[in-house]
Write a structure and sequence with these properties.
It catalyses: uridine(34) in tRNA + AH2 + O2 = 5-hydroxyuridine(34) in tRNA + A + H2O. One of its GO terms (biological process) is tRNA modification. By secondary structure, the chain is α/β, with parallel strands linked by helices. The protein contains 8 helices and 13 strands.
Length: 248
Amino acid sequence: MTFTVAALYRFAPFDDPACLRQPLVDLCAKQAIKGTLLLAGEGINGTIAGSAEGIKAVIAHIRALPGCAELDVKYSAAAAMPFKRMKVRLKKEIVTMKVAGIDPVRDAAPYVAPADWNAVVDDPETVLIDTRNDFEVGYGSFEGALNPHTTSFGDFPGWWRANAESLAGKRIAMFCTGGIRCEKSTAFLRSEGVEDVVHLKGGILAYLEQVPAEASRWRGSCFVFDERVSVGHGLVEMGEKGERDLPR
């Protein structure tokens, strides 16, 4: 059996995320879905795996939640179940930055489609920033990308503020695994007064899925947060096994 893996997120205002938790727990149990889903007042984030029909049922349920009709989902496959259990957790943020007042729905920067991303990577006037943790960057990144060497996403605002002066006036392009961290980090940069900033739509996973290997500017593999460990072009499994949590 091949398992369908769905990496998903949506920034959406949930007035009472706690009341959304149990229906998700029950549905995932009924459909034999495993993985992790995070719920917060700002939306939903997670990666889940199971049968194609089971994943379809859970995605339909999430799309029916307030503000989630346009849920961002990236599908891939796994030869074995990549998760050991199902967790639906309540959090203060679906991706932790610890900066008050950031609103990705309102302030996230413009997208660049995967098909157009190579031109961004190749532009010598653009500063390419990898918003992922240093551990993740060690698996692979885009040619010429700047690595902030952060331990967790919550370190990014401090890194930016320490380096903002040297990057002032430059065009900034940002990317992350599936897009969620860039929604928040570009909104943060705009709150800091950066006007010329863009980010990769759908993140590295969308790029690896859509851009042929022979045309790629990606080097290495992309770390993912399940027992596949990392994936390459076509989202093919690349790594050793060991269950991971979602981005810190």
